[in-house]
Specification:
The protein is an alpha/beta fold. It has helices at about 15-25, 35-40, 50-60, 65-75, 80-85, 90-105, 110-120, 125-140, 145-150, 180-185, 190-200, 215-220, 225-240, 255-260, 260-265, 275-280, 285-290, 295-305, 320-325, 335-340, 360-365, 365-380, 395-400, 410-420, and strands at about 175, 205, 250, 285, 315-320, 345, 385-390, 405-410. The protein contains 24 helices and 8 strands. The strands form 2 sheets. A 4-stranded parallel beta sheet has the order 2-1-3-4, with helices on both faces. Helix 23 links the parallel strand 7 and strand 8. Helix 1 crosses helix 6, helix 3 (about 50-60) packs across helix 6 and helix 11 (about 190-200) crosses helix 24 (about 410-420).
Length: about 425
């Protein structure tokens, strides 16, 4: 695609990268069938190809309107188009730049801007998110129906065993970063991951002074906040890498994908660039770590005797988050682990389609999000599973609100199988 960038931005590093991405797009249209919003709305401008055309106009200095912003806002950022693209177009990176530039040029309505600011100031901070959620649940009877419907269900009761974190006893160590809302919505996931790792000969240390990976602020175009969160995480993770930790692990696949981008995002900051690059190089999703120790896992499963009847053979429908299959390119990694643990894996139709969570998308674009959720839940429930498993906290929370079937992180199921 030919481009003629606006002279105002032409010499900036982001613009140079955006121009290279634009030029790699050949407008073939292979991305259209993979795009959830195009499938719902049928509008070319709500497809990757259409949005690329809008961003090309934006980068070339043509007038940009609230309508342009709407089409970019409607994008889930699921990156299914990247998996479908034969030319390797880095659509997600282009979208971040296009949204940021649009944010600078188009004033949002005051109520929408305020909502986005509140999300950016609350969601990435665990203590604030916990306090707001408690207050909202207390006020639930008097909240408007639309807002009441978006409240997450109360977190299931966690036993002492579910919260147990094993002692550090192995020479091999990794660090687990808890993130922001996961400890509030599903506090048993990280301890479960630590117990699974302990079974395969790896000790996990929680980085308690860490926090949000920066993805929420980044995708809200609050880039100063995102960079501050990234620098903080680099500062708290780096001493662990210096002390010999072999990996930095997230149990939320969206956070794993974001962590892998730290090196690029801080490459222009001499103080942080080398450490950020090292953190990104050490970033692993929990599925990568466990799958990489398959022999140790099989031995642990062979000797583990489930104390609870019905664990082996339980019917599980696995929902692969977009961040796992499209951003991290980890397709077909979790399913063999569940099969090895003795679970019966159900067939799920249209497995590449987004569930509609997409970070804050379910709050900012509730109608589209709910349509996608209904389609995803129908596909997951069709085979009659006893439990739905996923690999990302956003998907877990979102799907949990649309079904009566229990929704768990897959590593919790594995921990139950290993621990009884």
């Amino acid at each position: 695609m030919k481009t003629a960038l606006d002279p105002v931005i032409k010499d900036t590093p982001d613009a140079a990268a955006a121009e290279a991405i634009l030029r790699s797009c050949v407008h073939c249209g292979f991305c259209l069938p993979s795009c959830p919003t195009y499938q719902i709305l049928g509008d070319e401008l709500d497809s990757p190809r259409g949005r690329i055309y809008l961003m090309k106009q934006l980068l070339e200095g043509e007038p940009v309107s609230a309508r342009t912003q709407l089409h970019l806002d409607r994008c889930l950022g699921c990156r299914a188009c990247e998996s479908a693209c034969p030319s390797g177009v880095q659509y997600g990176r282009l979208l971040d730049f296009g949204r940021s530039l649009t944010e600078q040029r188009v004033n949002r309505p005051a109520a929408v801007a305020a909502k986005r600011r509140v999300l950016g100031k609350v969601v990435p901070h665990t203590s604030r998110a916990r306090a707001l959620l408690r207050a909202a649940r207390w006020l639930r009877p008097v909240l408007p129906g639309a807002l009441r419907a978006q409240l997450p269900p109360a977190q299931p009761f966690l036993s002492a065993d579910a919260c147990r974190w094993p002692a550090t006893r192995h020479s091999r160590r990794v660090v687990i970063v808890p993130g922001c809302v996961q400890p509030v919505l599903a506090g048993g996931i990280d301890p479960a991951a630590a117990r699974v790792l302990d079974h395969i000969g790896i000790s996990a240390v929680a980085v308690m002074r860490g926090g949000c990976c920066g993805a929420v602020s980044h995708h809200l175009s609050a880039h100063a906040d995102a960079l501050a969160q990234i620098r903080r995480n680099v500062d708290v993770i780096w001493p662990h890498l210096e002390a010999g930790a072999e990996a930095v692990v997230f149990t939320a696949s969206a956070c794993s994908a974001m962590l892998g981008d730290y090196g690029r995002m801080l490459q222009g900051e001499p103080r942080y660039a080398p450490r950020a690059a090292a953190v990104s190089a050490a970033a692993r999703d929990i599925s990568q770590v466990v799958a990489g120790e398959s022999a140790a896992l099989l031995e642990a499963l062979r000797t583990a005797v489930p104390r609870r009847p019905g664990i082996v053979g339980r019917r599980v429908a696995f929902q692969a988050p977009c961040s796992l299959q499209h951003a991290l390119k980890l397709t077909g990694v979790v399913e063999p682990l569940l099969l090895a643990a003795g679970f019966a894996l159900m067939t799920v139709g249209d497995g590449q389609r987004c569930c509609g969570s997409a970070g804050t998308y379910s709050i900012l674009q509730p109608e589209l999000s709910q349509q996608l959720l209904r389609a995803k839940v129908n596909a997951l429930e069709e085979s009659g599973p006893e439990v739905i498993a996923t690999a990302n906290i956003g998907c877990l929370h979102h799907i949990r609100g649309g079904t009566n079937i229990p929704v768990r992180h897959w590593v919790e199921l594995l921990a139950e199988r290993l621990n009884g």
